[in-house]
Amino acid sequence: MAGSKKPVSVLVVIHTPQLGVLLLERARFPGYWQSVTGSQEGDEPLRITAVREVAEETGIACRPADLDDWHLSNRFEIFAQWRDRYPTGVTHNMEHVFSLCVPANTAATLAPDEHAASRWLPWREAAAACFSWTNRDAILMLGAGAPQIARGGRLSLEI
Question: Where along this sequence does the record place binding of Mg(2+) (predicted)?
Answer without folding.
Answer: 53, 57, 114
